[in-house]
């Protein structure tokens, strides 16, 4: 079950009026499958979001350290070799991240779904529709900031 998206301060509530981003609007994609990482990066980049990719939990921590003030959303694959997504989630929480985290997996079982809910994460089951990915990103971050105003 997906959690309700956060409301953004200053929103008039008019669904036709885009909300101004209230914090970092970059996205970090963490997935050990390069084709998935590239596809998601292309979709979100073409939607106007700044995107960073990491193919492992270790690399994700490096990217996070370098760009933590720019990243407002982390799309985190649950099943990865080495440091899995749940271990990375724990490491990010220890670093007091304020970024929204979405657990993404084709094998999201009830225990993981419960953990996502209890840890304040959202989840997106694989396979997902492009429109669901873009909608969830926009719901959590607000509309993308045009490149000229970043």
Structural summary, described in words:
- Strand 3, helix 3 and strand 4 form a beta-alpha-beta unit.
- Helix 2 runs parallel beside helix 3.
- This protein is globular.
- Helix content is 37%, strand content 17%.
- The protein has one domain: Rossmann fold (3-Layer(aba) Sandwich), CATH 3.40.50.
- It has a 5-stranded parallel β-sheet with strand order 2-1-3-4-5, sandwiched between helices.
- It has 150 residues and is of the alpha/beta class.
- The protein contains 5 helices and 5 strands.
Low-confidence stretches: 1-18
Q: What distance lies between the first and last C-alpha atoms, to the nearest angstrom?
A: 33 Å
CATH-level-4 superfamily name? Response regulator
Strand count: 5
Major sheet strand order: 2-1-3-4-5
